[in-house]
UniProtKB/TrEMBL annotation:
Keywords: Endonuclease, Hydrolase, Nuclease
Protein name, as recorded: Endonuclease
SUPFAM superfamilies the UniProt entry points to: Xylose isomerase-like
Organism: Anaerocolumna chitinilytica
InterPro entries: IolE/XylAMocC-like, Xyl_isomerase-like_sf, Xyl_isomerase-like_TIM-brl
Domain Xylose isomerase-like TIM barrel: 29-256
Any one GO molecular-function label of the UniProt entry: endonuclease activity
Pfam annotation, one family: AP_endonuc_2
Amino acid sequence: MKLIDREQIAAMNIHYLYYSLEYFLDTQAALGVKTIELWPGAPHFFLDSMTYSDCREIRHKIESRGLTARIITPENCTYQYQFAAQVPEIYEKSFQYFKNGLKAGAELGCKIMAINSGWGYWNEDREEAWKRSANMLARLAEEAKKEGICLAMESLRPQESQLVTTLGNTKRMFDEINHPHLKVMIDTTAMGVAGETLEEWFDVFGEDIIHMHFIDGNPYGHLIWGDGNHDLESWLKVLDQRGYKGYLGQEITDFDYFEKPDSHDMRNMAAYEPFIR
């Protein structure tokens, strides 16, 4: 049963950290991938609160291989920048960092920047952290409008944040921001950890879901399809039934995949091939 278009599968470069960007791009082109979700992290791409890599050069490397960058996903878990930063100086530098992510994304031809709520201190009032996050996302939504990009907000696992970690939290933040350039993204790992389903997310958000980090899991882990316990075919059927035309980002982050990442991507694409139109 053919359920998705090839262009919907968006390869990410996080697990190619120890390989060159060119190696990653050559691998995806050889696998028949068409779409890239770029993780603008060193050494592949430099992005901070003051500057970023030459996007003309990076875009040429991508497009000369028959690929297209459609999503940019600035690092926001490992690096010091996050959406609800507590220290005012870091908060403003975080804003400039994500603003630069939007500018770089526009120069690369991306239409989406993936984001989340960030996190507050566990020993502070959650609502204070929530206010900082909402303020940051509202400001970034205005910047996204200027760049012609939509923000796509995902939920996080409870080990990562005490803010947006469930479907209900996502709905609250989405309604509070209420901006046409803030949309929704499903992370299937966070969804699975919360005990939620794709059907529930589509019931609440419908066409406002524009992107997904669509990976296998147990439910934890950001796994290659076949290494977890989710049912790829049944999930793809749900997406087909709901008319989902957005992207399926392959956010493969478990360190087991950092050695010989191309071999794991080969297995991943083999799982998808029977369902590609």
